[in-house]
# Entry
Amino acid sequence: MAHCLRWEVASQGNTEEEAVDNLREAIDLHHEWPVTTAMKEFDPICSDSNGAESFIASLTFRQIRFKLENAGFTEVRQKGNHAKFVKREGESIRTAILPHYIQIAAPVLSSVVRQSGIELKEFLEVL
# Structure
């Protein structure tokens, strides 16, 4: 798993090198049009009293895509192993980058949820 904290984009791979290459691809896709203009102020989506992120079970690409689409996101493009989902909120745009793997690792799922701006509880309830 590789995670860019600056852009809140994450990806995964079978090796560290593959995860980093996939992260570069995801960041490139994140910066292609349409670009996020809606940024939500938030605390970590799952944290304990020490602020450490808690475990979130992994989900499949199809489950996450379904949740994003039900929340109003549309898949606008793919690049390599990643899909870009967009939701327009008035004049703002929110994007979420989802790696196209059968099983999405929990830290990557956490990043997708933060990008989407959906509350974790709401995200996990929609199946």
Remarks:
- The chain has one domain: 2-125.
- The radius of gyration is 14 Å.
